[in-house]
Amino acid sequence: MPVIKSIEDLKKIRDQAKDQINLRVDNESKTRVVVGMGTCGIAAGARQVMLAILEELKKRNVSDVIVTEAGCIGLCQYEPLVDVIKPDRPKVTYVNMNPDKAREIVVKHIINDQVVDEYVVPNI
Length: 124
Description:
By secondary structure, the protein is of the alpha+beta class. It has a single domain (24-119), classed as 3-Layer(aba) Sandwich (Glutaredoxin), CATH 3.40.30. The chain has four helices and four strands; from the N terminus they run H-E-H-H-E-E-E-H. The chain has a four-stranded mixed beta sheet, covered by helices on one side. It is globular, with a radius of gyration of 14 Å.
């Protein structure tokens, strides 16, 4: 994790993340990953979760996944939240994510199509 000492450092990190994020949301044939990046999500570690997802996808040469961000959806106690939306499948919402869990989701759910039930949003 880079150390942020100035606004320029923050802008550089933002620009790097933007370069890695594929914002072409019009392609419904691809898996989409949406990370909750409202204030509550960011405070809970959503930035690190998003970076872990992007790094794991890159490490495994997965290029057909669209990673985007969303604002707060009102489930602050479960942040960071990550939605995985596969074509023709129901959306799966993962809760209380951290970078290690996010990497696991990439491998098990996104690549191997196995939902990780223990991280899925509880019935509320």
